[in-house]
Recover the amino acids of this structure.
């Protein structure tokens, strides 16, 4: 009964903190002119404060400390260190700017810190490509790549309203219930602290008008760090409940499938064009869905729903086909769907842009078919 109370407190405290802190952040942002100014690459077409990550940091850390109660929060000290490091990196980028190269270097250094002294290290691939246990060096390199990759993947999907926070809510809920069922109560509370934080932020980000806010790099880097560490912990977990399976890399891939597929795909496109993998563009999955729907909310809900379907399929198939086959199937399916989406968007080029009369959606142009000549 005590753990249920802790989880309720983690949700309630994190939600409350973010809900009441965001208006204060917006007020300060307006006074100090701390806004995101739209450009030709922006999906949003209005000036919005970008310091929502401050509320995410406050809601997550404070609620986790308060709700942990008698549990041993000491095991999360390295996660806190990583979150704090990304908080300051993101805050500097949101306020005065920071090059992608410098952010990348800091992420690598932080990842090594989390993997070696923090022990967030992959030690077993559980049959992926026939590989089981891996040595310290291989595990360290793979873990650093995973942490840095997931951080950047989450950062890259933060391109339309509600997507990063919505995906984060889905991921934290799935992991949260898994850890709860496995008897890993500290990490379950961690997940639900993140859930409450993101739900409150989602409301302002998606439905806010005069009080709309973005999470900025501060929020996306923090979120990416937490998700990366939860994913590694999920794969390395030895459950207290013997009925709970463990060592399921294919399931973890399904849980974070959208950020992973989008990042691999977008990096491949940029490199094939001779560009830096960190050069911004409008080729992300969310940009393509947005071109088809004309609505941030609809686009986010579609993408989140697809991610949820992948998770359900993975849980349904894991016992039938196993880790390795499911892992490959998920990757292949993800790239096929992304390819189909790209094809549909290209087909739309046969359509001419026409403004909907009296229906401007975030300043976007919707598409109607060219009249036959």
């Amino acid at each position: 009964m005590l753990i249920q109370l802790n989880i309720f407190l983690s949700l309630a405290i994190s939600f409350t903190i973010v809900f009441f802190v965001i208006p204060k952040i917006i007020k300060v942002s307006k006074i100090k002119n701390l806004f995101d100014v739209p450009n030709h690459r922006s999906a949003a077409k209005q000036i919005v404060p970008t310091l929502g990550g401050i509320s995410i940091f406050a809601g997550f850390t404070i609620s986790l400390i308060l709700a942990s109660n008698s549990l041993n929060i000491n095991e999360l000290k390295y996660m806190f260190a990583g979150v704090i490091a990304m908080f300051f990196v993101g805050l500097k980028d949101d306020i005065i700017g920071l090059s992608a190269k410098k952010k990348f270097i800091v992420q690598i250094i932080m990842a090594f810190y989390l993997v070696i002294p923090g022990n967030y290290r992959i030690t077993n691939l559980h049959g992926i490509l026939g590989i089981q246990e891996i040595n310290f060096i291989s595990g360290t390199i793979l873990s650093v790549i995973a942490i840095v990759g997931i951080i950047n993947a989450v950062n890259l999907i933060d391109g339309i309203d509600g997507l990063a926070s919505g995906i984060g809510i889905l991921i934290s809920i799935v992991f949260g219930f898994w850890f709860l069922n496995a008897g890993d109560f500290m990490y379950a509370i961690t997940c639900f602290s993140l859930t409450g934080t993101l739900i409150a932020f989602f409301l302002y980000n998606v439905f806010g008008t005069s009080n709309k806010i973005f999470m900025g790099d501060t929020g996306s880097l923090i979120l990416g760090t937490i998700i990366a560490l939860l994913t590694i912990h999920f794969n390395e977990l030895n459950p207290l409940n013997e009925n709970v399976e463990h060592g399921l890399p294919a399931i973890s891939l399904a849980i974070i499938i959208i950020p992973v597929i989008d990042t691999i795909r977008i990096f491949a496109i940029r490199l094939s064009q001779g560009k830096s993998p960190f050069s911004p563009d409008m080729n992300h999955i969310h940009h393509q869905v947005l071109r088809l729907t004309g609505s941030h909310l609809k686009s986010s809900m579609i993408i989140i729903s697809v991610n949820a379907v992948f998770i359900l399929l993975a849980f349904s198939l894991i016992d039938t086909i196993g880790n390795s086959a499911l892992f490959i199937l998920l990757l292949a399916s993800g790239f096929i769907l992304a390819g189909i989406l790209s094809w549909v968007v290209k087909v739309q080029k046969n359509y001419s842009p026409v403004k909907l009369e009296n229906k401007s959606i975030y300043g976007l142009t919707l598409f109607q078919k060219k009249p036959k000549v």
Remarks:
- Residues 2-353 form one domain.
- The longest strand covers residues 124-128.
